[in-house]
Amino acid sequence: MRIPALFLVLFSFASFHLYAQTVCNTKPVLPKFSESAYAELFKKMAAAEKEYEKDTSNADAIIWYGRRKAYLGDYHGAIAIFSKGIALHPNDARLYRHRGHRYLSLRCLDLAIADLERAALLIKNQADEVEPDGMPNAKNIPTSTLKSNTWYHLGLAYYLKGDFIRAYEAYTQCMHVSNNPDMYVATANWLYITLRKLKKEDDAARLLSTISADMELIENKDYLRILLLYKQQMDPATLKQELFGTGSSLSNASMGFGLGNYYLLKGDEKEARLIFEKILSGDQWASFGFIAAEAELKKL
User: Fold this and answer.
1) Is residue 292 part of a domain?
2) Average pLDDT per consecutive 10 residues, the chain (300 residues; last block may be shorter)
3) Which residue of 34, 64, 177, 251 pairs with 48 in a disulfide if CB–CB is 3.0 to 4.6 A?
4) Contact 262, 225 (CB under 8 A)
5) Which residue segment(s) compose the domain that 116 sits in?
6) How far apart are alpha carbons 149 and 132 in whole angstroms?
């Protein structure tokens, strides 16, 4: 797969600073868990730590220990673990992909971009691989890959920076490796709003034409509903009622950002602000919907 020359130029700059840009001082807001959920997550983290301690140079053990740390909200701890892994395995794209994700969680966008661009370069000539889920879906079937997650997170980092041209290029690459309906609708969601930001209305419309209500999904149903909203096939009032009801806070962040963005696209900044503020009153600080709503609210 061809990587745009733009990314190669960007990487030459980012790689120069890869080890110099190491400070991310964001203080995270810890996720809220039920007692039983926390106990289960902590148990899995402790098991991952035990495996890691058996061989602190094993890349798989490093990755899982870092991922389990992050699920508990210890993003700085996860980054420290991934950084140790990178020192040992500087050509393992997985480590940059996961560290980049957690820099994203902490809103350290430049650091995230540097890592994810590095991962994108490393995977260029590699066969793709399914990325196992740390928090499996209902069918325990992973829906993303190393390549799709690398491009997806890189696109988001650029989107949050307001660099919509580079976000578009990253999401276009991601679409090439979004090979199941769940990953397709997740990528299409962000690509669509990026196209709208770039005033590529015809391209945006063509993308929406590939979306249908009967797509068989495992986990990304909120993204499908958002896309159907953009297609005028979903009632915004229904989504708003759900948002202000008692639904899942994670679902509220994802769906809520789509709904707020829908109102932004219609020029209704007042309604968009109301929606974004609702999201920020929730407890999904590290979710992408929350982070994106936070970024948009700063512009209003």
Assistant:
1) yes
2) 50 44 84 94 98 98 98 97 98 98 97 98 96 89 97 98 98 97 98 98 98 96 96 95 76 91 96 96 94 96
3) 64
4) no
5) 5-143
6) 11
